[in-house]
Structure formats: structure tokens, C-alpha cells
């Protein structure tokens, strides 16, 4: 059988579960990809089902202050996304994506099981407020909080580990050198975010309702059981999966370039790049660029750069790096300005699952005899995402193709639109909170006392604009970021660039915790209330939202500057990318 015949039945660069070349007729395609997406839906169901309603549990059951409850939620979410870097490193360097998903899915199932038990046992939560001495609420003790923390961070470890590999393993099921399967891969990417949103929608509706009306232990038990079933389905497809071999961590490759350049920082660059070291195949080389020239010193050939093993002489990668390897690192560096200016969006996103939910708990949520769970208000957030994606796919893209010839907004334009919508969302949130606080003060005056446990006579639906604008913003910024970080990164570092994208979510949540702590200290005053009081009816959450709107507007201006710089550099760096994309055209 010649090369063409072998390529027609075997997927490029992929093997089956036995390690043999993957047969296209028996492996890969939509069925294995669907089994992988099942894991992602259950992960979203668990993580978001816990996160969107956790703040009400911390405040109402564990009796923690408002700001502290919000910070626990954002720290939990931030850690989940930060651990994606660990999962990506293990998948690239040691375990592979299949084992990484299987192991960390089991870890997440274990975490949700622990959380189900911790919320069921009476000794792991404080007594209700009405049974406490003198009518005061007793805060959860160290054992109770410690058990809760362990459960949450086991879940975070599972989420981070499997989330880093799900999308990559899904695309492994399609051969990008086969035109038919390449189009299927594009479809998989387009629908991946839809499945994430579907899992979130189930979480904020069905799961939150079960938490509030049936019991949290039942809801978290459902999460555990659904993840176990998803794992079994995932494992059932083992014989059908295509596997890619571990290629080594991109982080190590980046460090090698930095270390080699630092060791040779005192050397002079040669007059022409022809004297710089290059060992990459001609078809896969990246054109040299003039930016970050200090890194070019890693390609200067010097004494002691080579190691001799037996009769083989090879360069030490910590002393000598090829021009192509250096250019790959430069491409990653060019991502950083956009990376930095998208972090603040996820800080605003964090408010939708913390303070916005706390606002909802104080407001009128009835529709007839049905009481809407406070955490389920985020259904408008998820609805805005799905509506925005549908309108963009079906209407905006068609109109732009008809009028301008372009298939839609560029990735940078989508990111900019998402940031703009987040500014509007925070401004709307501030205005809604001004109205809510005025009603709270009036109720306190006419009621002759505190409104701590009273439902304010104001409809919760005035919060819809903030959920809608930020949700629509996420639809654009998430897809824009994912597109930007994948298309602007080297082929061998796409897992790394996806992890870099996910760290913007992580740092956004951590930044939210930091800002809440700082505002709490600065505005607390003698009474310790300030903008973020223990009871939000006594605080000035509108000022905090206004602060975020102002910071977001400044960040938007900074993004526009970074986007202009990134666009100016794309033509120089783009030539190298095109060379990478066109290699091995004569194979398969």
C-alpha cells in the first residue's frame, strides 16, 4: 500500500487505543466527540450549579457576611480556571488528554459527592438564626467551613484538570488534513460554547430550583451521579477515540528560549539572521521578525552549545534555540496585551453570580404562586448568551457577508464589543441598585426598623438589563478570545494559548476578590459597613458597581490601543503563521 492509500484510511498523527495508526472508518468522528461533550455538559452543570447559588448558602445557612461570601465564590471559580494550567501541563507532558479527562472527571465527581454529604449532615452547618441565643445568627465554625472548603477545592481541581483537555481531545477526533473532517472540526468548535451554555442553563434553572425547593444535598448528589454516568459513557468510547502522543509542555519550550537568551545577553547579534541557528524543516519555519530582538540571542551559536551522546552531536535546548522556536515565543508574547485588557471583563462577570444574586434575594420574585429562586435569575444571563450567539450566527454574519463581503466581526472586534457591553451592564446595575436602595430605605422608615429579612416591594426583573448586557458581552468576548488566542498562537502551543485564555477568567475572579477586600477596608469606616455592608440594604453597592463601570471604561480605552498595536503587528507575524499552516501539503 502506497502513502496515498495509507493516508486515505489512517488519520494523520493519530493512533488508536492500541497505539496503532488510527483507522478513519473505526475511530474518530461525531460519536466519540459527542461522548466527550457529555463530560463538558456535566462539568458545567456541576460547577455553575454550585457557583451561581453558593452565595445564598454561605449567607443564609453558614451565616457569613455579604462581602466574604462573594469572595469565597470568586476564589472558588478563580482557582478552577487557574488549575487549567496544571491540567494542560499534565496532558501535554505526561498523561495525554484522554487520561487527564478521565482522572480529573473522577476527582470532580468525588468533590461533588463530598459537597452533597457536607450539606446534608446537620453537624456540618450552624443552627438556624431563630434557634440561636438572643436571636443572633451563629457563624459557621472552623470545622464546618473547613469541610466546605475541602469539597469546593476538590471540585475546582477536577474542573481545572478536565476543562483544559476537553476541547483539545474533541478536535483530536477530526483529521485536519481531510477536508471533510476539517469542516466537521470547525462545526465542533462553533458548537462547543453552545454546549457549555446549555450545561449552564440547566444549572441555573433545574439545579438551582432543586437546591432551594428540595435540598442542596439532593442537587449536589445529582451532579455527582450525572458526572459518574458521563465518565462511564466517556470510557465506553475508548475503542473509538483517536489519540495524539504527548509532545512536551510548551511552557518548557518557552523557558528554554528565555534561559538561553539570558545566558547570551552579553553577546552581540550577528549582522544578518543567516548566522542564527535554525534546524526546523524548511516547510515549517517561521519568518524572522524584528521585535523582541533580545530573544534572538538564544539562536547565536557559541562554544559549549552542543552535547555529545555517543556518536551523536545535538544542541542543548537550554543553551541554543532555533529561530523558529524563538519566533513561536515572540508570537506568545504578542498575545499578552490583549490578554491583560480582557481580565477585567471576568471581574464584572463575577458580580453576576455574587452580588447580583444577593440583590435578588431581597426583592419580590413571585410569578403568581411560583417563587423564582434567586440563583435562577442568572437564566437571563445565559439566555442573553444564547440569543446573542443565534442572532450573530443567523443575522449579523449574513448581513455582513452580503454588505461588506466579510463573514462577520473579527476576533478583536468581538472582544471590543464584549467589553463595551460590560461597561453598559455595570452602569445599568448601578442604576438598578440606586432604585432598590431607595425602596429599602423607604421600607425601613415606614416599617420602623431593619429590612434584614423582609422582601422589598420591588420587582426582581429590574435586574434583567445588567444580566442581559453582561451575558451578551460574554457571548462576544468568549468566542472572540478563543478565536484570537488559537489563531494568533503557534501550532505547537495551542493548548498553552488556550490555557492563557482561561487564566483571564481566573485572574478576573481573583481581581474581584481583591477589589471587594480593598473597598471593604477603604469604605468601612468606624461601623465597618461602607459600600459593601454585611447586609447589602445598609451598604452602597451602587457605588461599587459605578466604580467597576469606570474601571471598565478605562480598560476599554486601553484595549483599543492594544488592539491597534496587535493589528499593526499581525501583518509582520502573519507571514510566519501562513508558512506554518501550509506545511506538509504534499502529504496525505
UniProtKB/TrEMBL annotation:
Q: Which GO terms describe its biological process?
A: oligopeptide transport
- Subcellular location(s) per record: Membrane
Specify where it is mainly localized: membrane
Segments spanning the bilayer are 72-91, 97-117, 192-211, 217-235, 335-352, 372-392, 454-478, 499-524, 544-565
Instruction: Could you list this entry's UniProt keywords, alphabetically sorted.
Output: Membrane, Transmembrane, Transmembrane helix
Q: Tell me which PROSITE patterns the record gives.
A: PTR2_1
Q: A single GO CC term, please? A: membrane
Molecular function (Gene Ontology), one example: transmembrane transporter activity
Pfam families to which the protein is assigned, alphabetical: PTR2
Q: How does it sit in the membrane?
A: Multi-pass membrane protein
Name the family the entry cites: Belongs to the major facilitator superfamily. Proton-dependent oligopeptide transporter (POT/PTR) (TC 2.A.17) family.
Q: What is this protein called?
A: Protein NRT1/ PTR FAMILY 6.2-like
| Highest classification ranks of the organism | Eukaryota, Viridiplantae, Streptophyta, Embryophyta, Tracheophyta
